[in-house]
Amino acid sequence: MESLMMDKQSYRATLFAARAALSSQEREVAASRLKGMLAAFLETHDLPNTPYVAAYCSLPEELDATDALELFYGIGATVAFPCTHSHESMDFYVVDTRATAASELPAFITRPNKMFGEEICADFKRIEPCEFDIMLIPGVGFDRQKNRLGFGAGCYDRYLERIRKDCLCVGIAFDEQVVDELPSDPHDMKMDFILTPTQII
Ligand code: ADP
Ligand code: MG
Asked: Which of 2, 98, 133, 184 shows the smallest number of beta carbons within 10 Å?
């Protein structure tokens, strides 16, 4: 177990370095291509007419899915963003990030890597795990067997145990974050698909 944890940590270090090495221009191109890949994905995977979508607000070094989310808003989707309350508890809340000035956005949107008490979400509608039709899931890395490596808190592993079986789990990453094989534990929840700017895996 310990050696597996070490193994995950060494993969995290390598994959953090890979995504940190990307230039701002490469990031912009990647974000725009991601929108095209998501459009192609949605053409071949049926969702309800007005789906419930779990999205994420990217950290500066993550692949920004903001433009790609326009595809969901365009079909009347309900789009929710995560707030991490503790390692054991993460919930998703509807925030209209497009209609809100940056200075007015709640801290769980602007600082998505921090933890916040539930009171910070009081003004936002919570979406329950069983309501989601599709989840866009960031990660430190993914592999071709659709394993996901996160920051090491296990938040998404715990959350994904609670979603419906027919909810699509879509990992989102730069191509540089996809490797042939990652270490995985029995608690690690697999993705259904991985989208990069150039591939649907
Ligand atoms: P990440 O998925 O963020 O890369 P890990 O998979 O390494 O992180 O998990 C981090 C910790 O969370 C591990 O100690 C693991 O035992 C714990 N964990 C993950 N999922 C669960 C779960 N469903 N129930 C209890 N503990 C879990
Ligand atoms: Mg995990």
From this structure: 2
Q: Which ligand gives the minimal distance to the CA of 87?
A: 1
- Measured by CA distance, the residue closest to atom 15 of ligand 1 is 154
- The alpha carbon of 177 and the centre of ligand 1 are apart by a number of angstroms equal to 20
pTM for this entry: 0.95
> Which ligand has its closest atom nearest to the C-alpha of 190?
2
Q: Which two tokens stand for residue 59?
A: 């950290």
| Res 5: pLDDT | 61
For ligand 1, what atom is nearest to the CA of residue 161?
23
The rounded Å distance from CA 184 to ligand 2 centre is 7
Task: Please name each of the domains of the chain with its CATH number.
Answer: 2-195 (3.40.50.10420)
DSSP state of 20: H
Mean pLDDT, 10 residues at a time, the chain of 201 residues: 72 96 96 98 95 96 96 97 95 94 93 94 97 98 97 96 98 97 97 98 97
